[in-house]
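hey so i finally got around to running both of the ones u sent me last week. sorry it took forever, my laptop kept dying halfway thru and i had to restart like 3 times lol. anyway pasting them below in the order u listed, first the sequence line then the structure token line for each. didnt double check formatting much so if smth looks off just lmk and ill redo it

first one:
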Amino acid sequence: MEMGESNKAAIQGQEFENLRVKWAAKDSVFCDLFEKRKYALQLYQTVHPEDTDVTEDDIGNVTINNVFTDQEYNDLGMTVRGKLLLMLECQSSWSMNIIIRLFLYLAHTWNEHIEATRQNRYGSKKLDIPRPELYMIFIGDRKKRPEWINLSDEFFEGNHEFLEMKVRVLYGEQGKKDIVSQYVDFTKVYHEQVKRYGRTREAVLETIRVCKNQDVLREYLAEREKEVISIMMALFDQQRAVEQFGYDKKEEGKIEGKIEGKIEGKMETKKETALTLSEMGMPIDNIAKVVKEGVDTVQQWLSGMVTVKP
């Protein structure tokens, strides 16, 4: 007996919901590392070495979330002595859209601060908000990429009369012992071991062994080895889940017809699909082709990154 169209649509929606959940980065090493105050403190000291007397007690509101959905993501926010540091981990692919993401993250975080401190945004009294600092950790090849990127140059042809925002890019330096450099080195060792052993437990164990021997995140890995193994094996599961839906991450801008067959059906399913593919880094033009909708429609769906439940 053939399955009814409504049942098919429901199963497709659930499959994509499962994929979206699996793709959540809440279990990433980035999140697990920097949600610990002592490593958050080291992160702050890396960008502010002049603050020699800052302590863990000065680190407040360490949060890791994604303002676009209710999932956690690789976005880190913390307050230190009146400063608000917002930091993103950027994958090895370079994108200036990080600036917009940080802008939205900043607005969201300021709004939460105003609400939490019960300030009147409509009153005449000037609001008391923490001073922002915006960073991106880039784990790919630096090449000739800049230390600073800014909104006006990338999006408004250099016009900064009404709005400007600058983001400092942290690349780390191989062999250095600051926490950013160690984290970047860790990711590079990880990719080397995956190339050698594939997505296997052996690759995970070798990553941890090599990093310990090279004094890369040694203390963290010694304390959290079991958790790190689980996190990294879960990452492999995420990647397998993507491949099961025909998404070839190695082939930029392409997707197998297997996904195309799964997005037929209700508009809600198409919106969920667009959200999932956007979270995986697919360009909007390609998403529009996959879901068979116009670019303007997809942009409208993703403008708030709102998940539509079927």
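and the second one:
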Amino acid sequence: MNNLTLTVENEIAVLAISRPAALNALNSETLDELNEVLTEIEGRDDVKVVILTGGPDKKGNEFKSFVAGADIAEMVNFSAAEARAFGIKASAPFFKLMNMRQVTIAAINGFALGGGCEIAMACDIRIASDNAIFAQPECGLGIIPGFGGTQRLARLVGMGRAKEMIFTCDNIDANEAYRIGLVNKVVAKEELMDTAKAMAAKIISKGSYAVSIAKAAINNGYDMDIKNAVEMEANLFGVTCSTHDKTEGMTAFLEKRAADLTDF
């Protein structure tokens, strides 16, 4: 991989986007690499949580950017057809982050602008450093968000706030992002990765199969009518009750001991 680094330890994959000269902007090569590595991770039983973050520069200096957007240098001469294809290309790894059985956490350090905000929104959970900056600045460039921003932002923060961010192109800081529900947590920048890994470890300590089924239930039911969504949940609840983890988890609870949950 030319633009990504991947490390796996204690069932946690840390996937860092690293294009320091472009502040980690997403170009076609990076999107292809993301799709490839996420496909690989999805098939690995030794990875239960994926932390997506922005890598440091080549000298190892502090991150300045999570993802500063899509690569404008690549987009500047796009035709309408090429721009559409670029958006579709991005949707593949973004939907993998959203729907893969592993939990995905965005650890957002520095700029999360345009495509950076959009890729963070594709993750299950977002933790921001206190120096993080968010924006959807596309309208100021004569375009609209093309990597899911008009759809995921409204679902996360509500239509009114999403329209304000997209129409004004204003930057918002980490605390404002937390206030409107764009991120789950804000921490000091030096605590960002430790916080993300601690949350990942806590999630892993639960039933990984149950967590993956809960993720599918939330995602699939979100746009259903409530009756069908609750019926789907009941079906998936039945599936989880046929597992080792259900027997072990409930038995451990009754025996007042820690459960050994192993299904995935």
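quick thing i noticed on the 2nd:
Strands lie at 4-9, 12-17, 49-54, 65-67, 103-108, 111-113, 125-129, 133-135, 172-173, 185-187.
anyway thats it, ttyl
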